[in-house]
Amino acid sequence: MAAAGTQLGRLLGGLWFLAALLGRPGATAAAAGQPAAPAVAAVDGRRAVAATGEDFVCATLDWWPPDKCDYGTCAWGRAGLLNLDLSNKVLLNAVRAFSPPLLLRLGGSLQDKVMYGYGAGRPCAPFVRNASEMHGFSQGCLPLRRWDDLNAFFRRSGAKVVFGLNALNGRVPLPDGSMGGPWDYTNAASLIRYTANKGYRIHGWELGNELSGTGVGARVGADQYAADVIALKALVDDVYRSEPSKPLVVAPGGFFDQAWFTELVVKTGPDLLSVVTHHVYNLGPGRDTHLIDKILDPSTLDGMVSTFSDLQRLLKSTGTSAVAWVGEAGGAYNSGRHLVTDAFVFSFWFLDQLGMAARFDTKSYCRQSLVGGNYGLLNTTTFQPNPDYYSALLWHRLMGTKVLAVTFSGTNKIRAYAHCARDSESLCC
Ligand SMILES: *[C@@H]1O[C@H](CO)[C@@H](O)[C@H](O)[C@H]1NC(C)=O
Ligand SMILES: *[C@@H]1O[C@H](CO)[C@@H](O)[C@H](O)[C@H]1NC(C)=O
């Protein structure tokens, strides 16, 4: 990331220009004794072409327990929501460094197997490994005391929280292989009421994890999902009826599927759903030994353009007031890959994703994960920042909400994005 030249900066009233170099362009030409072709970046500062939210940079916390393992390594340690050491000062300060506050999305695969705060007689037990169950674990339970502790941490650290609810509760398998029947929201309703009564601030309630389209582990039809989102909205409106600003209603937290997402957006109506969330794992499985080649390959990176632009077009054409977020993006699934997705090289993917998402009007982008797996912004055991933590923090501090159009001619190994600077927005655009 480099600041634009002073002159250009003055001209535009301040902007930050992000240019990532994938490998060394011109290396081949130079080796052949020829000068590298000139490259020109042009930033159109006359108007913004898209806008992010104030809290564009977001990170996730997940439910995975210490015995979650992929390809023989168990990369989650005590970083899951039920185990995280909430008294750790490094963790606290890492979140506090974000101002305006860091958005945290709580969720992940096991989210649709979590029950909340059983009391009296019904044990509130953690997840137990069981290979014959979906995602390899039994149902787990979030004790209300743990929920209190998590909320105390969110208050101390200043984080804004989006909580992903269990959307599989009460479903039954249908003949077509999907999970159906209406969402049983009794347990979710008691969590939401408890949370509101305690005065814990929740920025958004999200319904479900990766149940859209063909689903991961399980899927739910879009027609049923729309009915369930409507039920969640009614619940949120009821619980927060005396509050001037209600939490956002967020869905579906899954992979983009044009037909499924369209049906959800159309059937929930124009103003009910606040945020449409989708997930990004465009690099394939973490066990891939060629992950670095993909991260540095412009065509792999460009493979996500169609998803972002299709979703943007869908929201525009349906006339919904809902905005798009990336609710979870780890790049490489099954917990990422050590020394790749927790190393410097991953910023070439991460910063490009932030730039691309913003360019297509994404309002927030949640990196999987703040901590845990092999793709944490923080080290799983020490909470010391990994390189991408600084990429996230720099973006948060420098890049404003107004996105400018950039054209770049020359090598396709340089990726360029520009925003008005965060601290001089009134002067720009
Ligand atoms: C594992 O899950 C299967 C399928 O739900 C169940 O029948 C079995 O009893 C479980 N095993 C243990 C040890 O709980
Ligand atoms: C995290 O810290 C541990 C302990 O210092 C270290 O062994 C490990 O390599 C670190 N992980 C990363 C991704 O740097």
Record the SSE blueprint.
Elements: E1 2-3, H1 6-12, E2 15-21, H2 27-31, E3 40-44, E4 50-51, E5 57-61, H3 89-96, E6 103-106, E7 114-116, E8 140-142, H4 144-157, E9 160-165, E10 172-173, E11 179-180, H5 186-198, E12 204-207, H6 222-239, E13 248-254, H7 258-268, E14 275-280, E15 284-285, H8 291-295, H9 298-302, H10 305-318, E16 323-329, E17 332-333, H11 347-359, E18 364-367, H12 387-398, E19 399-409, E20 414-421
Parallel strand pairs: 5-6, 5-18, 6-9, 7-8, 9-12, 12-13, 13-14, 14-16, 15-17, 16-18
Antiparallel strand pairs: 1-2, 2-20, 3-19, 4-19, 10-11, 19-20
One 2-acetamido-2-deoxy-beta-D-glucopyranose is lined by residues 130, 132-133.
Write a compact overview of the structure shown:
With 429 residues, this protein is α/β, with parallel strands linked by helices. The protein is 29% helix and 21% strand. The structure holds 2-acetamido-2-deoxy-beta-D-glucopyranose (2 copies).
